[in-house]
Design a protein that fits this description.
This protein has 541 residues and is of the alpha/beta class. The protein contains 21 helices and 17 strands. α8 runs parallel beside α15, α9 crosses α14 and α11 runs parallel beside α12. It is globular, with a radius of gyration of 33 Å. The relative contact order is 0.08.
Length: 541
């Protein structure tokens, strides 16, 4: 390797002019009978030879015989980046050596003189021909961008960052940009931003580079023009409803849905003068009647629904709603973007609790809504006012989780489908709710609009509340928890987990019986899960 005319700033030169490298025991090439050299201290010296122009004409690294193996083992173990290649590959300054402080120039001269006496042997690497001074400048941050700073305190705040980092990365993973605000170099740049001639996020609540990657990934998967990602699924639902339904407006929703969504529709929206018609998921006639009687702004439903996994004919209801000027939003959380493409079926918007299958690791809260640029922009405008911003670290977890989404969902689809058949045939199970079963009321609809039926199965065991508790407590693999869609299997008893504050009669009104179980299958082996469920069923036989 060759490096020429490399100019080092004084602090950088002092750091890299010489470093010690103690080798491991070296047995290679040792003559027979000769005692191996153990723990020898070999100095690796970067020596500078100055040319007449004051620049660096060559750079010598003297490596011990064991250096390559030592570097690859020890350095890889102890640090994330090895700087030797960067020392070789980068020009460190724009200025000639004549611009150095006298002490630095003297140090360079002494190093050059000392290096002249070093013989070049097999363990010496001569590095010549440094890259052009106009290319990447590692020392530039110190030299020019912070030259106006005089104290170490100010330098620690601004060095390497002030006036822009120009971060360009070839890292495989998406960087996490942890910032609450974005700066403008000059006032004119701010004015250009305000007048839409310059692009920036301006403030963390309005966007983040890491978050944008997550949004674009979801948009591509849903076939959407735009996606807005928020702090939770409920945040996405509530902001969407408030943004698209005017005061005094009317919506239509379905009986089976996430309870917190129902609470928002029944208790919060009326405060804004917004009323709702609630229909059975399969009641298309009921939907048509509501559309004829009211000026309906939005039809909002889950498909499949929670917890009975009812399915709405998305294509049919979309055509019906659009004929009346009504928007359609489908919560596709249980389906995932892989099993169902709601936008392609005619819906205007599709919403997900990304906490579930999209994130997929039970370690992040997020929600997203996808659709046309026009509709998502309306929702985004209100979102910027209300907040509910997703942390960029959470956005990174969503990005990471999505990389294995297809693998996880494929496994979960398969396990849930096979277990639904096993459960339906078991004498201790009264009923199974799963759209992949022919016994499901919307099985034919599910077959038309879904490519997989999801990783959640709901079922009723043959017994009362205490019998069901006994079954749940006998399970060894799943966690008793209130979520679904992650790598770990999760089980819950909705009567306790979600409706325990209601009386038995009130729970029954929503179809929530004491023996109902919702089982979210993770990515564990099918046979392990099957054996666990069967042994738990045996405890209530």
């Amino acid at each position: 390797m060759a490096v020429s005319s490399c100019s080092f700033p004084p602090r950088v030169f002092n750091a890299y002019s010489s470093f010690e490298c103690r080798s491991d025991p070296d047995f290679s090439g040792t003559p027979t009978g000769e005692k191996p050299r153990i723990g020898s201290n070999r100095r690796v010296t970067a020596s500078l030879f100055c040319t007449g122009g004051g620049g660096l004409s060559s750079l010598i690294f003297r490596f011990p015989p064991n250096f390559v193996r030592q570097l690859s083992v020890k350095a890889r173990r102890n640090c994330s980046n090895i700087g030797v290649a960067q020392v070789v590959a980068a020009s460190w300054s724009n200025g000639p050596t004549s611009g150095y402080p006298s002490s630095a120039a003297a140090a360079a001269s002494q190093a050059a003189a000392a290096a002249a006496s070093v013989p070049v042997s097999d363990d010496v690497a001569v590095v010549e021909g440094c890259i052009d001074n106009d290319s990447v400048q590692i020392g530039d941050s110190y030299d020019s961008k912070t030259s106006f700073l005089s104290s170490d305190g100010s330098i620690t705040v601004h060095a390497g960052e002030r006036l822009g980092r120009g971060i360009v990365t070839d890292a495989i993973t998406t960087p996490v940009v942890n910032t609450s605000a974005y700066f403008f170099k000059k006032t004119q740049e701010l004015i250009d931003f305000k007048e839409k001639r310059h692009t920036s996020f301006e403030y963390g609540r309005y966007g983040n580079p890491t978050t944008v990657v997550a949004e674009e990934k979801i948009s591509a998967l849903e076939g959407a023009e735009s996606t807005l990602i928020m702090a939770s699924g409920m945040c996405a639902s509530t902001v969407m409803l408030m943004a698209l339904v005017p005061a005094g407006g009317h919506i239509v929703t379905t009986t089976d849905c996430y309870r917190k969504t129902r609470i928002f529709i029944e208790t919060i929206l009326p405060k804004m003068g917004i009323s709702a018609t609630v229909i059975d998921p399969a009641d298309v006639d009921g939907l048509e009647s509501a559309l004829n009687k009211n000026k309906v702004s939005l039809f909002f439903t889950e498909s499949p629904t929670n917890p009975f996994l009812r399915c709405v004919d998305i294509e049919k209801v979309s055509k019906l709603c659009h004929s009346k000027g009504t928007l359609v939003c489908i919560d596709g959380t249980f389906a995932t973007p892989l099993n169902q493409k709601a936008l392609a079926l005619g819906a205007d918007l599709v919403l997900h609790s990304a906490t579930k299958f999209i994130g997929g690791h039970n370690d992040v809260l997020a929600g997203c809504i996808s659709g046309s640029e026009k509709l998502v922009t309306e929702i985004r405008t209100l979102h910027h006012i209300l907040g509910g911003t997703l942390n960029p670290n959470a956005a990174y977890l969503i990005i990471r989780g999505m990389k294995t989404l297809h693998l996880r969902v494929q496994q979960q689809n398969s396990t849930a489908s096979r277990m639904a058949e096993v459960l339906e045939a078991h004498p201790r199970v009264k009923r199974v709710y799963y759209p992949g079963l022919p016994s499901h009321p919307e099985h034919e609809i599910a077959k038309r609009q879904m490519t997989g039926f999801g990783g959640v199965v709901s079922f009723e065991v043959d017994g009362d509340l205490m019998t069901t508790i006994k079954f749940v407590d006998a399970l060894k693999i799943p966690y008793i928890a209130p979520s679904f869609g992650g790598c770990e299997s999760i089980v819950d008893q909705p009567a306790i987990m979600s409706y325990w504050d209601l009386s038995h009669a009130e729970r029954t009104k929503y179809g929530i019986l004491d023996n109902l179980i919702r089982f979210s299958f993770g990515v564990e082996d099918f046979e392990d899960l099957k054996a666990d469920i069967l042994q738990a069923l045996e405890t209530i036989a």
